[in-house]
Protein: Vesicular inhibitory amino acid transporter
Amino acid sequence: MATLLRSKLSNVATSVSNKSQAKMSGMFARMGFQAATDEEAVGFAHCDDLDMEHRQGLQMDILKSEGSEEGAEPPLEGDIHYQRDGTGPLPPSASKEAGVCSELSGQGKPKITAWEAGWNVTNAIQGMFVLGLPYAILHGGYLGLFLIIFAAVVCCYTGKILIACLYEENEDGEIVRVRDSYVDIANACCAPRFPTLGGRIVNVAQIIELVMTCILYVVVSGNLMYNSFPNLPVSQKSWSIIATAVLLPCAFLKNLKAVSKFSLLCTLAHFVINILVIAYCLSRARDWAWDKVKFYIDVKKFPISIGIIVFSYTSQIFLPSLEGNMQNPKEFHCMMNWTHIAACILKGLFALVAYLTWADETKEVITDNLPSTIRAVVNIFLVAKALLSYPLPFFAAVEVLERSLFQDGNRAFFPNCYGGDGRLKSWGLTLRCALVVFTLLMAIYVPHFALLMGLTGSLTGAGLCFLLPSLFHLKLLWRKLLWHHVFFDVAIFVIGGICSVSGFIHSLEGLIEAFRTNAED
Structure:
């Protein structure tokens, strides 16, 4: 009987695996994620939200026996058992949901190659927020350059160990994938005493990072427009209000199908802008101020630079989704190596040549240093990119909030914000509009790109990229780790914690001071 049951479960597991793969491929394709993602904490955070949907829909970790086996005892009502290898039949609602998504995605849709996965990672860590890196060199000098290299090495390593936490050894000694997302890993670390605490912490960090990313887009839009047209009688706050008025229709978004079409165009445009900035800097190579690059640091402002650099490398949240959607997951480590090496070289060169060109006059957003003849054109393209990028983190944040607070079954804190016909209720739309207005208010009262970026990087960036992966790796796999892995994990956790606390305190002090100054004005 046991052999027959095991055979049946094996067949069901194969079916579940095929459906889950089709669902993931379809969702990534519908977002345009295989073609290109947005930058920084945008695309990958939304992908983790899709992971949560995938987990809630398919319930791959739940084995709920339905007494279909002849002679088997029917389960008690509500009897749910967790099976680590993800086998077991699906609940009826989950099967229906999986079938619908399979139809949308198409069973024959191929998975992504290592090159396509690398393209997604590159877009995540080579976004428009690299425009703040020269400002980090201003306060960190050569140590800032070293930190760009160090952050690349650490983020590459923590990305690998995070993926290692998805796998465990089964009874036959085979390494199998037993988890699907960052949230699953966090929940596994807190189980059995607090089985959902870890996932909630990761979700909170994700929401903070997404909302802060939206605020940064509004800030950078107002800043770029104000510096592009300084002669116009329009303040930076007014430009931020105009940008938010353009973004208000985001509250009516139902999906990202239309927005995702601009993703590839935005990414290519940003690469062109980076090349233009570097070309201008190279044209002034004779005037480079090598003597301005310091070996000492500004103790008060350098911790903010740490957050800026860390924030530019954040990609950990979407890596589980990406690795699970690769044709050959064994190529993941190689892909991580060359993407982070390339990012390290490009970021280091961009930050250094930009700082050498303008030295102590380097501004928070480096394009503000360009001559007025080309600054307006470049900044307008950047503003367009920022406005087109805003819907991605906004929609992802809204979905995480709606799913965790309004749609999480019996665990929801508030009633569903969607009606029976699937339409958004009026108060749900009001909440979305309130989120847009909140990003505007933050951008108006704290219009400091570097401070906000440093705060986000120190708080959520360091936590998601440094602290949590090393902690989870030690918790889940400590018995199998070699001594040098344990040393690396502990060192990263300690160093990351120090940098995170220091950067957060200094960034918060700067933001409070800026908030008071703006309130007085």
Q: What stands out?
A: Residues 110-409+425-520 form a domain with the Amino acid/polyamine transporter I fold (CATH 1.20.1740.10). The chain has a mean pLDDT of 75.
